[in-house]
Fold this sequence. Notes:
Elements lengths: L9 H21 L3 H4 L4 E7 L11 H9 L1 E3 L2 E2 L5 H10 L3 H4 L10 H7 L7 H7 L3 E7 L17 E5 L9 E4 L2 E4 L8 H19 L3 E6 L38 H4 L6 H17 L1 H16 L6 E7 L19 H4 L3 E4 L7 E3 L3 E2 L3 H8 L14 H4 L10 E5 L22 E5 L3 E6 L4 E5 L16 H15 L8
Parallel strand pairs: 1-8, 1-9, 2-11, 3-12, 4-5, 4-8
Antiparallel strand pairs: 2-10, 5-6, 6-7, 9-10, 13-14, 14-15, 15-16
Helix pairs in contact: 8-11
GO molecular function, one term: N-acetylglucosamine-6-sulfatase activity
GO biological process, one term: glycosaminoglycan metabolic process
Protein name: Sulfatase
Amino acid sequence: MRIRPMRWSLAALLAVVMSSGCAAGSAALNGASSSAKKRPPNIIFVLTDDLNTNLLPYMPQVQQMQKEGMSFNNYYVTDSLCCPSRTTTFTGRFPHNTGVFTNSGDDGGYGAFNKNGNQNDTFATSLKASGYNTALMGKYLNGYDPKKNGVPPGWTDWAVAGNGYPEYNYSLNENGKVVKYGKQPKDYLTNVISNKGQAFIKKSVSSKKPFMLELSTFAPHGPATPAPKDKKLFPDAKAPRSKAFNEADMRDKPSWLKSRSKLTKAQIANIDNSFRKRARSVQAVDRMIANLRATLKAQGQDRNTYLVFSSDNGFHLGEHRLTPGKQTAFDSDIRVPLVVLGPGVKSGATNSKLVQNTDLRPTFEQIAGRKVAKSVDGHGLLPYLHGQGQADRKSVLVEHHGPNTAADDPDRQDAASGNPPTYAAIRNDHELYVEYVTGEREYYDLRRDPLELNNTAKKLSRQKLASLKAELNRLKSCKGTQCK
Length: 484
């Protein structure tokens, strides 16, 4: 039988060539094969404890992330206290919607988190439902006891400590089994969770499932214990000295603050020592980031993973005459780093939009291709990460219950460190407005007064004050889409 040669028209040949060429070009531009496209992106979230932006100059790996990814320079937390802030991060909801305002007691800690049902509606439960392996390693919530409490819903892998602040002599709940660690160099907690995180990445890649890994360090929270190799670093480092440091005139401040005496030489020396310890303690965190990135590259997942770096709250060191601490509405405490790199994120970009930790859960859900939960008070940041616009916020909300008096709370502060009464505050791109339960107010025009030195609340016009109060009241009672 004679086989006829197949005849192609010039147009058909061109169509085939162009079609195949476009397909190949598309794959090359996206930096992934068709098989990789089918796998949703992975997420690694490194959450530090009490880290202020003034530590970033001591973290070269985070600086490298900034060069390769996007930095959000107007990122705020909903409370400058560990447990309320972390609860917001897990749930995407404000404290007034989670019922978690403190680290312990009826309105705080792990107990309140569970009592109010928050454990059943987090980014972990959402991503696990989307087929992700999900892991939390390090710190969870204040009040969690690894010996008494189990693995919460949503987590496929769990290695969590209770009192891990000293970095030694702690216990981890490892998927329900309590494992004790000692005081040898190999037991240093930041290194332990770094190694466990790398093992989790390898296991997830082998299982061919996308993964969400949160590595939650206790550093640089006090006592800010450094790894052995870092103990003698930065011998001459000092806390930054702005005009807010040991502020000259405090007469315009609220009563809880204006009675502070000027810092003594001994207090200043202690502040500088605290700063050095904090800088040393984050060196292991910085190395952890390098090791995570190396593992991702070795596993072929470096181009299919979003790496997120942040902190649960900031920290003050001498500003406004305050000794080391947090819990205030000043930028030192509520404004923290947020750095993201990953697929489609422009290198070296800075985003100045108002964003908040209510936005992290919906961002993770957007990355996973999952519909954002209706219960969320924030909005996802994926459009920003990919260079797209979206509706801007008018302001962000900060809610705090105080003063903090629980004797067993690792974040309890005395008056010198700053222990403000209950307040609610709004922060927009150029203003901070605070209302205290005492009836006192603070207002700072940050265009003229970026260091928050001059409280001009008493000089506000009736119209301006009414506008600020209306916005604060709107956010204090908002829920879901009302908060956006």
